[in-house]
Inverse folding.
């Protein structure tokens, strides 16, 4: 009878120790695993950004930051849109087949609305920031320059839809981020909700 009681006590102590150890392990593991989750700041940096474009005049551009990247939003004029069709034979990827972009941006304007261009302000060559050069025929870019973006680091030239000209270092067109229109004048950058 004493052996049976010792066995039961030993069995109970073993089980109690195992349960206590398991609870302790969970108590240590939960905060450790939770530390791998992104911080609130990281969530905020990756969240979609709403941009009011109601005050962006035709022919003007604004810049915003999304996920640490500069996003350029251009309100193109009818003249700017007309110039896009005249230069397709000078472009490396006029149909944007090799570019990183949502499906809706495979049109010649690379946009949801022809007059509004939304592109990342990062050259696809080495990550420099292209500058807006919308004027036609400036002395430093040549009399045949129809307007677009110029990368001052290595000379890559992009048209008014962010498409790269042939013969320049940038391998692909400027990236089009996922975006949609919440209203007529509010662009949601970072979320392609039905490409409305």
């Amino acid at each position: 009878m004493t052996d049976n009681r010792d066995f039961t006590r030993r069995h109970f102590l073993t089980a109690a120790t195992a349960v206590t150890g398991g609870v302790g392990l969970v108590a240590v593991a939960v905060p450790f695993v939770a530390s791998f989750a992104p911080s609130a700041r990281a969530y905020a940096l990756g969240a979609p950004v709403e941009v009011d474009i109601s005050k962006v005049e035709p022919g003007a551009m604004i810049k915003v930051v999304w996920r640490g990247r500069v996003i350029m939003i251009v309100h193109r004029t009818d003249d700017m849109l007309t110039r896009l069709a005249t230069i397709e034979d000078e472009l490396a990827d006029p149909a944007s087949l090799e570019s990183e972009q949502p499906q809706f941006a495979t049109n010649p304007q690379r946009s949801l609305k022809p007059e509004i261009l939304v592109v990342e302000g990062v050259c696809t060559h080495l990550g420099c920031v292209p500058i807006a050069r919308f004027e036609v025929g400036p002395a430093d870019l040549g009399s045949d320059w129809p307007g677009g973006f110029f990368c001052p680091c290595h000379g890559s030239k992009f048209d008014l839809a962010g498409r790269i000209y042939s013969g320049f270092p940038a391998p692909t067109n400027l990236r089009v981020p996922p975006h949609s229109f919440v209203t007529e004048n509010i662009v949601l950058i970072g979320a392609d909700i039905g490409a409305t």
The chain is about 25% helix and 20% strand. Residues 2-34 form the longest helix (33 residues). The two ends are 81 Å apart (CA to CA).
